Amino acid sequence: MRLWRIVAANATAELEAALSRITQLGRSHAAALDSSVRYMAANAWVGGGAPAFAQALAARRTALQSAFQDVAEEMARRIRQLGGQAQVPSFSTSVGTAVARPSSFSGMDVAAMGRLVADLQRAGPELIGAGQRLSAELSALCVASPSVRQVGDAGVWAEEQVRDLRQRLAVIQQTHDIGTASQATAAFGLFGGHAPDANGVNKLTAAAARGDAMALKALVDLQKTGKDKTLAGRLSVWWRQLGPLAQGQLMNVSPGLVGSLNGLPAVDRDKANRAYLAAQKSAIPPELQRLRASSAALRAEMKKLSDQMAGIRDPYQKYGLSQRLEQLRESSTRLEESIEEQELKMRQLAAVEKGMALGGQNGRPPAFLLQLELGGPGKTAISFGDPDEADNLVAYVPGTGTTLEGFAGDANRAAVMWDQARRFQENKKIASIAWLGYEAPQWGSTFSLTRTVVNDNAAKEGAPALASFADGLRAAHGAASDARLTVLGHSYGSTVTGLAAKQRPGAFADQVIFVGSPGVGAARARDLGVGSVWVGEAPNDPVGDIGSMPLQLTGTLNDDALHLPAMSGPLGVDPSSAEFGARQFYVEDSGDAAYTFKGHSKYWSANSISLKNIGYLINGKYDSLQAPPATQRQSPPSPAMPPAPPVNALTTGRPLPQPSPTPAGD
Is 358 within a domain? Predict the structure, then answer.
């Protein structure tokens, strides 16, 4: 019995000494991940993959502290079994969190994230060493605990994260020397590996980085669907992390695809698209020459065969020759179609170059070519001013009848909007964009059952692309800026704009402007999810009255304000109606007869009040808006209607309904 007591006493003392060392070890290392957790809590607004990373970090911290707690409890239990006394301290620590204060930027504090990575880098080897010491203590005492591995595992995890995060942070620090990262970089730059990826973007970008053109094409196709609102942010970060060498290689291989990716810097998109334009401009003429030569040779062969058939009386021989002639005619038709397509591309290139030439004139900055797709109706986006550096951005969306071949006029509208906005706000950087990223319906398709000016099919197809383009403008924009984004939709382009806004409620734009709108696909301005909604309609613009055609009723009597259900046309409620609830700015009558539809295209006329008001709106200078002459002011609305807008935003009376538009173009 005495011997047992001696053995028990020795064992107890040994266990107590080990518990003391383990307690000291736990007190030294249980809080190893606390500072990293604090940084994540203080910067939880970063978004992107940060929430998943923060969750994983918190789980590792909890497992680390639980491991020390479990081991210490097991040691104490054994001490008590031997008759000793043992108290186990708590290894759980409190993580005080700071609330992120509003500041001049929306993004990431790069310096704080650098300290987070440094803390993880220090914690990794320390926890691995602590795990080894803890395991050795238990092995010496022949004590088994399934929790002991969690200490070392936390250290291994920290080291794995550091290897990825240091590389990502280095890229962020190189491209954002002002100490803050842009919203997209903040969201996906540092913790992008933890972001959800339902659409397989990570695999596509990895393949694209290796020069896989099909992966690039898949990314372009995905952004056209608009279903991944994080795509532009991911692409922005992916592109920056590639580095100049890899970027240059991709531009050389697939310049047109690279130039179409939303979220990439405007300077890089411009460089890629200009390279694509130059390559096409060089490739099309010899291809045209080849096609025309082939066509001429084919016509000569057809004539020769026709002449030969004229002297043949044998019906069997003549039948064989006629079959061959029919084959030649089919080939000739295909060749002519190819020639027409190449000629169309040449005209499209000429229109784009003409539009871009407006940059650098009259004090304007050089044009940025943000998109270029040739063939068919064609697509493009031209910006006057760098949108990534602009304080105020406006994206103009044209309407019915617009094609790439005739885009020079639309580019001019964006150019004069830059002129006007700059004139009223000289201390601000302005970017004015003409965006034709959708297939606009043509006047000749009025009686089509699918893509026509009197249904929203084309707008439904184009809205996702516009939403993605807006995502890209925000993702690529520089840090530490309160840039103001306006999207202006004209005619059918307002329908596209309205539907795009509904796809990104609260995140599409800071302001939308509708001019000459036949309807925006919404019953109320508030349905668009945009803080500032403006409407301008010329009194002699009949297109703006399409939304008041009595085709259906929209709304109920149970809305916030008492009103009658609004009359809705084929593209939605008339946005210039009081029931819609938008703020209206004055547009003067151009003096043209309504039936000519000329008033529909004169919102950008030089020195017009409408153009001046658009310039004020782009800059947010609402107090400067020009009101109609006193003789044209409307009478006060009835008390049942929504409150009247400010006097400087009043519009003239509604124009009378007019016949359906004729093929006059927007």
Answer: no
